[in-house]
Amino acid sequence: MTRDPEPRAPVSFDENIKPLFREMDRESMEFAFDLWSYADVSANADEILERLGDGSMPCDHPWPAEHVELFRRWIDTGRREFDTDANSKHDSRVDR
Ligand code: HEM
Questions:
Q1: Residue 60 burial by CB count (10 A; 0-12/13-18/19+): exposed, middle or buried?
Q2: I want to staple 19 with a disulfide (CB 3.0 to 4.6 A). Which of 2, 36, 60, 84 is the partner?
Q3: Count of domains in the chain?
């Protein structure tokens, strides 16, 4: 399962967003874009957020609100690909 970062921690595609997409999501959506590709998700992020937010995608299993919020936060904080500052995350430890 995906790690849910603390509210002010950076959200990265590699660590937090990509794991939210199931293999079947990726396969079903391949006709349009690759949900495991940073470049594709980043380029289509607004449309993807809209579908996640209105619950129409994935059609068999609407995302819980906290996952939609995480995706929104990833967009709002600059669509990072990787968590390049792993150390600062350990400094502000949150035990979960
Ligand atoms: C721009 C955003 C998106 C568009 C326009 C879109 C459009 C579509 C369309 C036209 C289909 C095929 C017809 C249908 O089953 O409704 C489909 C299927 C599917 N999409 Fe998306 N989709 C989007 C985003 C997503 C995302 C973000 C996910 C996963 C998180 C997803 C998961 C799926 C799945 C699982 C299916 C297969 C559903 C089934 O046949 O049971 N889609 N999508």
A1: exposed
A2: 2
A3: 1
